Amino acid sequence: MTLLVREAQTKDAQGIVNILNPIIEEGLFTVLDITFSVEEEKQFIQDFPKRGVFHVALNEEGSNVVGFQNVEPFAAYTHAFDHVGIIGTFVDASCRRQGVASSLFAATFNLARSKGYEKLFAYVREDNPNAIATYLKQGFEVIGTAKKHAKVRDTYIDEILIEKFL
Ligand SMILES: CC(C)(COP(=O)(O)OP(=O)(O)OC[C@H]1O[C@@H](n2cnc3c(N)ncnc32)[C@H](O)[C@@H]1OP(=O)(O)O)[C@@H](O)C(=O)NCCC(=O)NCCS
User: Fold this and answer.
1) Ligand 1 geometric centre to CA of 132 (Å)
2) CATH code for the structural domain at 4-165
3) Which residue owns the Cα nearest ligand 1 atom 44?
4) Where are the domains of the chain?
5) Per-residue pLDDT tens digits for 67-88
6) Do 27 and 155 touch, CB atoms closer than 8 A?
7) Of the candidates 69, 130, 132, 163, which lies 20 to 30 Å from 97 by C-alpha distance?
8) 99 lines ligand 1 (CB under 6 A)
9) 96 CB under 6 A from ligand 1?
């Protein structure tokens, strides 16, 4: 699949919620449980931290967002974590397993390094082996399990902690 990866703009809000909201509604791959309106997503993009990384992947014609990935600073209450970012990745259900996430990771690792990040970190649901496999392929390592860390639709779910040094 030929893709264009670039930084997210407010005009991508519709495309992003088109991917994210069905994943939230499915309730299987994310701990997010409230869908976002296009206006909320626009605001999120506008307010995104300057030190953050927010990439979208567009299809060949540049007409559709097929995936997005963001890195946010781990914490704002201290500078001790300034070198650590939290990463999240979402690809449209109809475009998975075609290298969309891989293209996003390549762009995100580069920009994150240039913004001073040394390490990326994520929590991934233990019942989401596809996501864990995706991150491991990118060089992330499993560093622990936070037990019963999420409670989604009345069911406890462990969260796998992963990290990668850039
Ligand atoms: C996880 C997700 C982002 C992967 O995106 P993708 O664009 O399909 O990933 P890629 O095509 O770039 O896959 C790269 C590699 O990751 C691994 N991988 C990806 N999907 C996989 C799957 N379903 N099963 C096993 N390995 C998988 C493979 O090693 C793959 O390489 P290969 O296809 O050459 O074997 C996508 O499935 C998704 O959006 N899932 C729902 C949301 C989610 O779980 N997000 C993560 C929460 S943080």
Assistant:
1) 8
2) 3.40.630.30
3) 29
4) 4-165
5) 999 999 999 999 999 999 999 9
6) no
7) 163
8) yes
9) yes
